[in-house]
Fold:
Amino acid sequence: MFEKFRKKSPWILHYNAGSCNGCDIEILASLAPKYDLERFGIINTGNPKQSDILLVTGPVTLKSRERLVELYSQMPEPKVVVAIGVCTCTGGVFRKMYNVKAGVDRYVPVDVYVPGCASSPDQIIDGVVQALAILEEKSKDIEKPKRLFGELTNNSIFTNRREMAKKIKHEKN
Amino acid sequence: MKKTINIPYGSQHIALLEPVRFQFETQNEKIVGVKADIGYVHRGIEKACTSTFEYKQIPSVVARVCGLCAITHSLTYVMAVEQIIDVNVSEKAKYLRMLMVELDRIHSHMLCLSHTAENAGYEALFMQIMADREIIMDIQEAISGNRVQFDFVCIGGVNRDITDEIVKFIIKSLNELQPKIEDIFDMFENNWSLSLKYKGIGAITKENASIYNALGPLARAAGLETDVRAESDYYPYEKIGYKMILEQTGDIYGRNRVRLREILSSIDMIKNILCDIPEGNIIEKVKGKPNGESVARLEAPRGEIFYYLKGVKQAMLDRVRTKTPTFSGIPAMVEIFKGQEYGDVPAILASFDPCMSCTAK
Amino acid sequence: MISAITKAFSNLLKKPYTCNYPVTPVIKPKNYRGLIKFNDEYCIWCDKCEKVCPPNAIIFKQFEDGHKVYNYNPYLCIYCGDCIRACPKTGDALWQCEEKGLPSISKDAPNDDWFILEKEAKQSRENYKAIKAAKKKS
Amino acid sequence: MKKIETNSENLKDDISAFYDYKIWHYITVNGVDLGDKMEIQYLFKKYGNKEEVVCYFLTMDYEKEIPSIVSIIPSAYLGEGEVVDMFGVKIKEIPKGLLLEEDSCQAPLRKAQ
Structure:
């Protein structure tokens, strides 16, 4: 039952990893009456443990990379990452600067890339609708009886950071 | 001695638009000490301006310092460059630049007001202001072709001309907007539950404002007369009916009032600008390479933007220094937090209208 | 109080403020800054757009016989329009259309492929120069 | 821009004699790399006046330490912190690490690098 609700009403988490605020205010504008992303049952939360879609804006700066990875690892499976704006996709104008690496996918896997500088609300809606389809696919994938098909591996999913650190240490030994 | 508790706030928080981390030291509910960590958005734009980009490319690069005051960043940079290489901009281009700056000011102030309302727990007002803000966004889109990043200014003038159609559209939209702003003004003024959350909270005195070098609406709400529009001759602001807006209270309520009155006066100014746009070229040819030092200042929505340039007769500049309003506003912000209740922090922070991507560059 | 009630009723009768975006398209004003389009029939291969682009979203790859191929990455372009202003054949060879870029999924990899291409293009330029220099000598 | 030269010994005296918070607005501290030396500038403007920006400047070697003006202008710690981070110069009682991480590029605006 919970899966059904999740599909119908995904919650989004928004993190600004060093963007120029342009994409952030466009996300706000797409939640506001004219474009109203809440028609899709979406609500903006501040809590990573309850959200399904992570909207990232900005080229990831060295200081915010740790927060980003932490937020990503705190989110429950299945999760979808949407990169909004050109500087999030590839680095944009900030690509060659010393405090920035090119794009978010150097740190977390990205599912949907939304272009635009700054991405306008209709592009954001397009991207989120795309993300919903991927979320559905992913949750179906998780529900598969993997033990039966022999697909279950040890290092598939981490629910939190501590577990990840433990496992990686274990593998090193 | 009483014990104190440290509460971190940020860098990811539902009430924050952008990453900044505050460390509040609280005694019961009262804040006694604040530490601000502002480096989350540092990208290294000053370095890139002197090593990767040529001086003609920089207007569209510095516009990406901040999306909310994009036009003021590129405009201040362009003003500084024009001083070094001796370009005289036509009157028409100056008027078009002023028009865009004032539009930007309206949309930034409205965003701040809606954010303050949301953080005081008034979601419906947030939605209402955001809906009205779309009118301004449509105007900006019609003029410059994009909603947020305009790329409207270039060295020697502006990139696009406005047509009679757009002028008519702007006047129609502004006439539509004015009663809506007056409605919102009424709401901020007379709503009892909002006044509980705004009046007397987060106040700063005029003396403290000038000791800690506050800027923009933060200073004008405390009665400190600082506004670059009145302090420079570069743009004919007096001709189009500019008045300095001052309040004496210095609290959140005063800041909101300054912003709302500035929106109304900006609307009047835009109408005056549109009435008497002079004829002329919109762009002048630019030749030569920058050599020498120059400074330029401009009033952004949050206060004074300052650029220092140094060129050494090369296509790349030697030094670009950006000073943004929030950067010099942070000491005053930290000062205001002391002695306030922890529960008021989101509303106070939103009323500063902090812009961290400006601060850290 | 009375004004609030009248407002509530009048708002009920108004049509909704929201535009139903994915179903009905948003009306864009004229001269919206969208994707950059290119036509190689009119291009004079002056490379001005490549030089002026701040994030290097336009790259010309050069082949050994001298002809160039235009590459454009909409996920790197900041839509500033500087290339259009720099182009001597604006409108024929290079122009900015009014449609926006669509979101892509991770399989397309707008990122890594482009960085490989960038290196290749740089290499191809150098190769071409070397060949030219060798021809001059001979 | 009106430029007035000073040096690291007289800096505090000059600025405390000049600066009055009721008349002058402190803009920022700025650093310029001259190639072999550093130039540190302190910029001020007058409230409600159309006069030019006033700039106090001093030249210093990279290794030398200069005094901080935080005791005169309390909000100067941000600007000085930025100069410390960006150029790797030493200012008394101003720590590193306002903007940069420990593993990122140190003193990025220094020309020698």
Remarks:
- Helices of chain A lie at 2-8, 22-31, 65-74, 86-89, 121-143, 146-149, 161-172.
- Chain A touches chain C at residues 33-36, 39, 82, 86, 89-93, 95, 102-103, 105, 109-117, 120-123, 125-127, 129-130, 134 (CB under 8 Å).
- The radius of gyration of chain A is 17 Å.
